[in-house]
Target: Lysine-specific metallo-endopeptidase domain-containing protein
Amino acid sequence: MGSILRVIRTLAVAYGLCSRHDLYYISRIGSRIAGIASAAPSISLNTFGPSSVSDVSALKIITSIKNTGTETLRLLNDPNSVLSTWETDSFHVARADSNLVAGPALNFTGLRVKYSPTAAVKAGKPELFTVIPAGATVNITHSLASTYDFSGKGGGAGKYKLKASTRAKTFLSVGADGSITSVEASEGTVAEVAVSGRLSGPKLQPSAKGAAHDTGAFQQASGKSKRALVRGCNDPQINDILTAADRANNMAHGAHGFLRDGPWATRRWQEWFGGWDQNRYNLVFGHYDAIRFNPPNFLYDCTCTDDGLYAYVYTDRFQEVFLCGAFWRAPMEGTDSKAGTIVHEASHFPQYAGTADHAYGQGACRDLARNDPNRAAMNADSHEYFAENQPWLGQ
Model:
């Protein structure tokens, strides 16, 4: 704070504001500016791991998250941040002798998640947040054996650097008024691990936090859509699934028809996919063309116990969708709806679109469309919001 005040007083003298009255008010303004600056959220992140492993199944990484600010932080447990132990794409894993940012990363083999920061704040449940007092540190352990493919392209025995992805080191801080602020952590230590021996981890399975069980068989759902299969679902849930699957199908058809018939460079397109580009149009059109007709044929699992997520999929378990707590609270249609969630999850399957979760929520997706439209064209929430069309931006 003292350095800020000295700079302000020096500038005041330089501009002739030297009276006692001037300097008094300048000092008060400087104190307030310094106070605001010192209260701004600040986080440091360090990543640690073993020096070597002879079996990739033993590869566990610790992320150390420290609140370096002066105020207690209440952070959302965003599943794509390193606060979460969900097997999402939270790390950049590459050969230690390659450029860590530009070098080829290992293939991701984990899961993709539908999540809404706004809905999590509204739910307000303590387990959806991590509270870190000023100066305190939280350590999170991540198992990467089943999340990245060390035996495939870019893999093999050798030394690897493991660091948090840009998305994963951006934390969502929630204020007392419910406002959400993005805070990008300053990154220090990066883990370096020599991997040898067994390079293939166990096949990723639903965990206790995500699915209460994964041993039951899917059963045919009775109702207006007799094609959907369900597991661990009660009758009200089955009714919601059947309705949502049919409406998701209609949404995908509607998005496909809108793009097929044109005009194409519309506000609706620009809102979610940025400026007009023929190649990007062909890509997105192909995604909806692949998704439509299919949601009523999916396998729906209701055993997820995580109340902060809407749903998740394993990209290698085609057409299998795990529905979680936020899904059941969502409206059937509209923004972040049940039907839209199914479109979101469908877009993750490589057979349809192979989207990732680059941004969550309408505000972040609009920013993505403006600043990085090519990523928007491969972002699941962008596909969902275009299909939901709420607020309405054209038929």
User: Anything to note?
Assistant: The first helix runs from residue 2 to 14.
